[in-house]
User: Which sequence fits this backbone?
């Protein structure tokens, strides 16, 4: 992993180490764990050691920084596609302090996206000087996959950063982010009763799940976030549907993906995230109406599912400060 990234929302990926421990439902089908196992590294779980890298790997961002400076551009670096950069495990804080933080300081033309499912560790592990004076090339980001994990957005907002982002991938349920982007909530969340009504989230990324065991995403969950971002003036980036494509999202011309006509698995998804397989709904084929709040979903594969939401792409980025 490194060099030019294939992840749509970043120019590069950099991994200070490989390995992690699962913390929430978004981790259930962690692609990084699968990739590590496939390439022969047993680095997952609290008892496994992590995989570390030599100095040549750590020199790569210095070259990226020079290239960005020469081009007169800023380049985004996603830090930790194969780990969680704020994990608390033996040896990791030493690596952060001795290597990662100095590297970030030494690369001012790179915007470092520090994405974590452990935002409560930012205050413990970030340099004190950064908490006093947030660095302009550091983006604090956390994952919110469902309303149950809105507390992570709250913790992020309370941590000093020059700018912040939410990664809502894989999105597993309806989430009302209004109070976290400075607008009123649409409804009272059953999971969140806090007073937050503040601006401070600069970017929201939404995506569906890919790979083995991927769970489908309801279009109304995505629409609600898109509309709230529009209302609040927060850049919204829709990465992709993942493996499953909902009915009504078949592209600009409404063409039905071939897979739908050639035996793709399909079922019904409720607003609460319950997937009801076709075998249970055998009497009602594609073209029949689902009940209120339900939508038919088809496992067409990530490439065919694409990233059109109601016929258009949403690929907004925040202005770098
Ligand atoms: S926190 Fe990220 S890297 Fe760690 S197990 Fe979860 S999804 Fe995988």
Assistant:
């Amino acid at each position: 992993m490194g060099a030019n990234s294939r992840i749509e929302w970043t120019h590069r990926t950099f991994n200070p180490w490989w390995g992690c421990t699962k913390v929430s439902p978004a981790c259930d089908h962690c692609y990084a764990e699968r990739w590590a196992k496939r390439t022969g590294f047993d680095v997952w779980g609290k008892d496994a050691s992590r995989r570390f890298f030599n100095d040549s790997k750590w020199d790569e961002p210095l070259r990226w920084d020079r290239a960005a400076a020469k081009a007169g551009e800023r380049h985004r670096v996603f830090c930790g596609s194969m780990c969680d950069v704020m994990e608390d495990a033996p040896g990791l804080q030493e690596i952060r302090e001795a290597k990662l933080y100095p590297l970030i300081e030494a690369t001012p033309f790179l915007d470092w996206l520090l994405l974590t499912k452990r935002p409560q560790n930012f205050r413990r592990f970030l340099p004190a000087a950064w908490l006093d004076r947030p660095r302009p090339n550091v983006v604090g980001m956390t994952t919110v996959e469902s309303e149950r994990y809105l507390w992570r957005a709250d913790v992020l907002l309370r941590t000093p950063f020059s700018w912040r982002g939410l990664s809502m991938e894989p999105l597993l349920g309806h989430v009302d982010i209004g109070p976290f982007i400075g607008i009123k909530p649409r409804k009272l969340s059953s999971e969140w009763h806090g007073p937050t009504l503040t601006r401070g989230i600069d970017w929201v990324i939404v995506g569906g799940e890919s790979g083995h065991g991927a769970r489908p995403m309801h279009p109304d969950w995505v629409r609600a976030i898109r509309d709230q971002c529009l209302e609040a003036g927060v850049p919204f980036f829709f990465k992709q549907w993942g493996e499953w494509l909902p009915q009504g999202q078949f592209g600009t011309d409404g063409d039905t993906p071939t897979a739908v006509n050639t035996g793709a698995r399909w079922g019904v998804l409720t607003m609460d995230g319950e997937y009801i397989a076709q075998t249970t709904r055998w009497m009602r084929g594609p073209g029949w109406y689902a009940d209120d709040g339900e939508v038919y979903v088809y496992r067409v594969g990530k490439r065919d599912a694409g990233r059109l939401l109601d016929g258009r792409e949403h690929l907004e980025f925040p202005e770098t400060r």
Notes: Residues 12-242 form a domain with the pyruvate-formate lyase- activating enzyme fold (CATH 3.80.30). The longest helix spans residues 55-71.
